[in-house]
Amino acid sequence: MGNFVANEGLSIFVILVWLGINAFLFVHFYMAFLVDQWFYTRVLLGQALSWARAPAACLNFNCMLILLPVCRNLLSILRGTIQCCSRTAARQLDRNLTFHKLVAYMIAFHTAVHIIAHLFNFEFFMDAQLNRNSSHLPFILSEIGTGDNASFLNPIRSNET
Asked: Which regions span the lipid bilayer (predicted)?
């Protein structure tokens, strides 16, 4: 067990930190779109707004991160500075492609969640436009901005779309 911790401890720590950042970003942005500022959009879309925005934040982070493990100059600089301190840390830099693949898998996962949430968004926008009940709040919100150059909440402007 001691050899495993010595050999794999840094890799596990880096992966846990990366997963923790992803989880924090997801929860933070999910909760950020549940505030009153987005009330009317949530009336139209429900939870799908948060389900689209949270993986988008994680996608931004992971797409920024995916190139770092395969930058040769960065790896050379890190190997040179770490070589004098710890051989275990230098050995972890040789596993850069594994981390690159893990980030790619996370990008694929968050892309799928993001796309599915937007499909639900489209369906909710269509339902709000098609349900022509004047006492139904999503329909009333869909009718905002029907004039020229007016801002609107529902991008589906007619029920023939």
From this structure: 12-31, 51-71, 102-120
